[in-house]
Design a protein that fits this description.
The structure is a homodimer of 344-residue chains. Chain A has 344 residues and is of the alpha/beta class. Chain A has twelve helices and twelve strands. In chain A, the strands form two sheets. A seven-stranded mixed β-sheet of chain A has the order 2-8-7-6-5-3-4, sandwiched between helices. A five-stranded mixed β-sheet of chain A has the order 1-11-12-10-9, covered by helices on one side. In chain A, α4 packs parallel to α5.
Chain lengths: 344, 344
């Protein structure tokens, strides 16, 4: 029984804790604290009513038509995915062969390494500068470098590179650039416009965060049509189910709900930031639905464990050779106040 | 913009026609003609009611616990997938590297070639014997042969190899064997018991056919726990959404519904078989929810087109170097009678 060596050697991606049963204030996996738009629930219920015995539309046409209008592109610029992890997987499989190299910044989304491991590729990891910008190393030539990932806003930092900086990176990079915009609806800018002028820029999005649909698994990619056409060959034919397609279409259609939800999350984000500062923490200004913070005591793991004991889950992150800290998702105002009260 | 060469060269899998809008009697993609168990719909509605803002259980524990009871294995013998295509993808990525070889019989499920193409692997295709058994070539040693697929029951033939024959194949094969049991609930036997005695046998299942849940995307794999542990590293963390997990758990729990549905489909299958014989066709006895048939006239494509004109979609299949024919899904009795009436 011989698995591929790279599979046997890899440790595998470990997602944030998803406790079942126990009642936690859950601020560890950047979920939206509010339920999704009632229009999403209604659309799913209506599809459920029609029965599930038929295959869904393999290309998610209804979603792509509506999303294209919202984003100002054409439907054939959009690829639907079973969450944006599926999108990241599809793009990686299309560009990265065994023995190739991928590049990504650190600290960032730890899944990028897993995706490279599964392909049997190696990773060229470029440390962020002190100010969370990216230096020359991120665009330097490298043999067999075939894909670069850039989470923007980045996790865990919540920092954002401006579209002009991303455009310059893509222009200088010797390979395609996947801009992972999982958190972009909480930010001040995005990179969709760059896709029109540079075919090597791909932008991935998810409905898990800003649309409050982590449980539904829906993400999408925006790229030029000749890129989408190749990627379609790699995806599973029916990668998005009928309920997810109905819910996602209703979600993208309800931009008023999105604006209102994002405004609420941002308002609480400011309170979280100042609340942490007031308690002696050193948070970073965030463009996402979480705040990255350290504390001068460096007792991050103890703080995490103490909060967990008291029923609040935040994410303790330790990056080898870099340091550690806490990534705290923005909850409701009540959850935020409970957290801050525990921090003294 | 350099895609992997194997991706650029491949043509991609084309699923059966899924017409939107138009009213067809749809007998071309082996969907179940009946809606799923009402308990499935109720379970999904209850989960929907709770909101979708939280991530689902990454390992689908509730489903695995219930399925393990039904199948007589332990929960850690089961891997959940976003349809059994996701399961086939995960297994392929775990075993098959660029330059490796996969083996499968012909004619069979055309996705196997696509999965090999995406990995940059080559295919060793072994023709079925006249009686739909598999000869020595299917187990012969071959350098870099790392995975064999066997659809059982097979599509398009609807034929079945007995568990003893499958066990012998697995014992002689120099690589793991993935037994694709998408249609097995309509058959007289299955290969789950073989997994206990041979760690190189993996059995995949889907809820798309016998549970009438093609729109939900849910499948699973049964294999020994040390195999499942490696495969977990390859799957997307949250590959199954909260609604699919709830629906799948309710579906596997409702074995009474399954038995009743399978009995109905089998009863219509017999009528379809004899109806085709009575009209001069040469159908094969089927262990699945479809019937493969040829006609002495060999006018298979014309028959397909004529039926389509009259509002009935069946699947016209042509296999290079082998021949062509019609694969007709078992519909309701009324659909079946309408089809047979058109065939004269």
């Amino acid at each position: 029984m011989h698995f591929r060596t790279n599979i046997e050697l890899m440790s595998g991606y470990v997602p944030g804790e998803q406790p079942r049963g126990q009642k936690f204030i859950k601020l560890n996996t950047n979920e939206n604290p509010y339920p999704p738009s009632p229009k999403v629930t209604a659309a799913i219920a209506a599809t459920l009513e029609k029965g599930l015995q038929r295959y869904p539309d393999p290309l998610g046409t209804a979603f792509r038509v509506r999303a294209a209008e919202v984003l100002g592109v054409e439907p054939d610029w959009i690829l639907c995915g079973n969450g944006s992890d599926d999108i990241l997987t599809i793009v990686t499989r299309a560009f990265v062969d065994s023995g190739d190299v991928v590049r990504y910044p650190a600290p960032s989304y730890i899944l990028y390494k897993t995706l490279a491991d599964i392909q049997g590729a190696s990773c060229d990891v470029v440390r962020y500068e002190e100010d969370w910008s990216l230096g020359y190393e991120f665009t330097a030539p490298l043999p067999r470098l075939n894909l670069a990932y850039l989470a923007n806003p980045n996790s865990p930092s919540g920092t954002l590179l401006a579209p002009g900086e991303v455009a310059a990176i893509a222009d200088n990079l010797p390979c395609p650039l996947l801009v992972d915009e999982a958190y972009v609806d909480f930010a001040s800018t995005n990179c969709i416009d760059l896709v029109r002028t540079n075919p090597r820029i791909m932008v991935s999005r998810t409905l898990s965060k800003s649309y409050a649909l982590a449980g539904l698994r829906f993400g999408y990619l925006v790229a030029q049509p000749q890129v989408i056409a190749q990627l379609r060959k790699v995806k599973d034919s029916y990668n998005c189910d009928a309920l997810a397609l109905a819910g996602a279409t209703a979600a993208i259609d309800d931009q008023a709900w999105l604006r209102e939800n994002v405004a609420r999350v941002r308002a609480t984000r400011i309170k979280l930031f100042h609340g942490l500062e007031d308690r002696g923490f050193k948070p970073l200004a965030s463009q996402a639905n979480f705040v990255w913070t350290t504390h001068p005591s460096n007792a991050h793991e103890e703080i995490y464990l103490r909060l967990k004991d008291q029923g609040v889950l935040v994410r303790y992150m330790r990056y080898a050779g870099w340091g550690d800290g806490l990534r705290i998702s923005v909850g409701t105002d009540a959850e935020n106040e409970a957290l801050l009260a525990m921090l003294g």
